[in-house]
């Protein structure tokens, strides 16, 4: 063994031992193997002792940088795929229930920083299996450390996407992750590297690719039925959807409140700046503040723009020019993500792509316009220049020179990809490429300048100020590594 390799392994072993010792010491006081009720005083004491003991251990991802990644497991046909779930907000429940419905998959663990949400997850999983076997965790790293776990479903706020995804990949876990891929371009690039290096299967929650109407629309475009595509219009939602008011039946408020019992709010903020607890900025409404989310633009770019790319065969192709305008609330507003926006892009082949929210000239959904016709599709509707296309359930085989992969269930496609050792419909590279125009559009809006994008090098050209906005800034001790 070369001396450099041996030395690296020894350093990794020492670093791991140090991190492991710190974590083991901390977990004597904080071991969330189940949801247990504790007094407020003892809970606060345990948390203080935990944080005091783990100041360095919290940086475990950085400590382990450069160490070998765990190898992903491909279960035998006779084995069940074991899966853990991290996050029980909006997407956690429906994703988990889909996996619970598969006979060859078993959900064995759940994690959430909110004790109430965690209990709901555990009850749902145990209720399905009619047992009490589901393990409960408050720290995603403990769940991911389980050697008996094959895969993980991540449904966490955007500012947590990178850290959870990279840790899962390093642990050799196959990943079902929500869109957008991450909170910034730099984080997305880090996730892509980690997933590729680990060799794990990745599926993005861009589930529209598993819907027949989107599949049909994309095959019509890919098979040249509308001629050469010249323009694509992508309509996304605008404004802010008040989930707190809708789901909690409480009035929106900017008031600072005591942190509810059972919510580890400090951990919830994680790498984001420290802020007082304002209920309307947390559960589900985190997406309307740029410290934790990306607004409607980043929330939806992984749906309708993703479909636009699929129809254009642009899963590995990006824009060359990006400009954008948007209406922004004050930076210190309760919610500060843009409420109305328009992003105009130029793609190879002289294709113009317009992505907008709150503009009447751009209908919601995805519309491809070609030299011989057009197609428009949403989740509920399908329209085309040729009325016959609307009658088709799918493109007739004799016209399918290009045949796109087909799945009727997005979660099932993930499980099958693990078993078959193949890519999913939306692998990590696709997730990255689908979200990039949203991030670039936001940067163009913030700077007020047209961006020139080098897709191969993945960098903004001749604009250092705009290029700086591709990065991310983490609160200590969290690090992107």
Structure description:
With 481 residues, this protein is α/β, with parallel strands linked by helices. It has three domains: 61 residues, no CATH class; 128 residues, Rossmann fold, CATH 3.40.50.720; 189 residues, Dihydrodipicolinate Reductase, domain 2, CATH 3.30.360. Helices cover 37% and strands 16% of the residues. It has a nine-stranded mixed sheet with strand order 13-12-11-7-10-9-8-14-15. Strands 3-2-1-4-5-6 form a six-stranded parallel sheet, sandwiched between helices. α12 packs across α15. It is globular, with a radius of gyration of 23 Å.
Which helices and strands occur, and which strands form pairs?
Elements: H1 3-27, H2 40-53, H3 60-63, E1 81-86, H4 92-100, E2 105-111, H5 115-129, E3 135-137, H6 140-144, E4 151-154, H7 161-170, E5 174-177, H8 185-198, E6 202-204, H9 212-222, E7 229-236, H10 243-248, H11 265-269, H12 295-312, E8 321-327, E9 340-347, E10 351-357, E11 365-370, E12 374-377, E13 382-384, H13 387-391, H14 410-420, H15 428-447, E14 451-454, E15 459-460, H16 464-468
Parallel strand pairs: 1-2, 1-4, 2-3, 4-5, 5-6, 7-10
Antiparallel strand pairs: 7-11, 8-9, 8-14, 9-10, 11-12, 12-13, 14-15
Helix pairs in contact: 1-2, 4-5, 7-8, 8-15, 9-12, 12-15
Short description:
This protein is of the alpha/beta class and 481 residues long.
Helix content: 25-40%
Q: Oligomerization state of this entry?
A: single chain
CATH topology of the largest domain: Dihydrodipicolinate Reductase, domain 2
Total domains: 3
Strand content range: 15-25%
CATH superfamily assignment of the largest domain? Dihydrodipicolinate Reductase, domain 2
Counting DSSP E segments of at least 2 residues, the number of strands comes to: 15
Mean pLDDT across every amino acid position: 88
What is the CATH C-level name of the largest domain? Alpha Beta
| Strands in their spatial order, largest beta sheet | 13-12-11-7-10-9-8-14-15
The DSSP helix count reads: 16
Unreliably modeled segments: 1-66
Shape estimate: globular
Main sheet characteristics: 9 strands, mixed
Terminal Cα span: 27 Å
Report the radius of gyration as a whole number of Å. Answer: 23 Å
What is the CATH architecture descriptor of the largest domain?
2-Layer Sandwich
Query: What would you call the structural class?
Result: alpha/beta
């Amino acid at each position: 063994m070369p001396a450099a390799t041996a030395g690296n392994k020894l350093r990794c072993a020492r670093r791991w031992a140090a991190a492991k010792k710190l974590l083991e010491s901390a977990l004597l006081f904080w071991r969330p193997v189940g949801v247990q009720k504790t007094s407020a005083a003892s809970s606060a004491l345990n948390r203080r002792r935990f944080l005091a003991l783990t100041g360095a251990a919290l940086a475990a991802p950085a400590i382990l940088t450069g160490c070998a990644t765990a190898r992903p497991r491909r279960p035998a046909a006779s084995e069940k795929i074991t899966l853990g779930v991290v996050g029980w907000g909006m997407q956690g429940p429906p994703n988990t229930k889909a996996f619970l419905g598969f006979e060859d998959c078993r959900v064995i663990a759940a994690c959430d920083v909110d004790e109430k949400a965690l209990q709901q997850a555990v009850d749902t999983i145990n209720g399905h299996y009619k047992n009490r076997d589901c393990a409960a965790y408050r720290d995603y790293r403990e769940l991911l450390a389980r050697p008996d776990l094959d895969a993980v479903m991540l449904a966490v706020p955007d500012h947590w996407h990178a850290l959870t995804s990279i840790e899962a990949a390093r642990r050799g876990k196959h990943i079902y992750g929500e869109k957008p891929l991450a909170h910034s371009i730099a984080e997305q690039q880090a996730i892509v590297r980690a997933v590729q290096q680990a060799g794990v299967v990745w599926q993005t929650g861009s589930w529209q690719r598993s819907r027949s109407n989107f599949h049909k629309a994309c095959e019509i475009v890919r098979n040249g039925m509308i001629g050469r595509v010249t323009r694509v219009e992508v309509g996304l939602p605008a404004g802010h959807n008040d989930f707190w008011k809708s789901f909690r039946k409480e009035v929106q408020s900017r008031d600072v409140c005591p942190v509810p019992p059972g919510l580890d709010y400090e951990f919830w903020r994680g790498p984001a700046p420290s802020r007082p607890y304002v209920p309307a900025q947390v559960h589900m409404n985190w997406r309307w503040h740029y410290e934790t989310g990306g607004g409607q633009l980043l929330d939806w770019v992984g749906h309708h723009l993703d479909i636009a790319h699929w129809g254009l065969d642009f899963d590995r192709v990006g824009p060359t020019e990006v400009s954008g305008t948007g209406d922004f609330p004050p930076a210190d507003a309760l919610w500060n993500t843009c409420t109305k926006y328009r992003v105009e892009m130029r793609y190879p082949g002289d294709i113009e792509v317009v992505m907008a929210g709150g503009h009447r000239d751009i209908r919601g959904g995805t519309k491809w316009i070609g030299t011989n016709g057009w197609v428009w599709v949403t989740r509920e509707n399908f329209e085309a220049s040729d009325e016959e296309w609307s009658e088709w359930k799918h493109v007739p085989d004799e016209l399918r020179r290009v045949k796109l992969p087909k799945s009727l269930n997005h979660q099932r496609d993930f499980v099958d990809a693990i078993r078959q050792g193949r890519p999913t419909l939306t692998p990590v590279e696709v997730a990255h490429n689908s979200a990039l125009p949203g991030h670039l559009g936001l940067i163009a809006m913030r700077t007020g300048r047209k961006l020139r994008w080098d897709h191969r090098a993945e960098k903004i050209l001749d604009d250092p100020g705009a290029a700086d906005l591709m990065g991310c800034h983490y609160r200590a001790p969290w690090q992107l590594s």
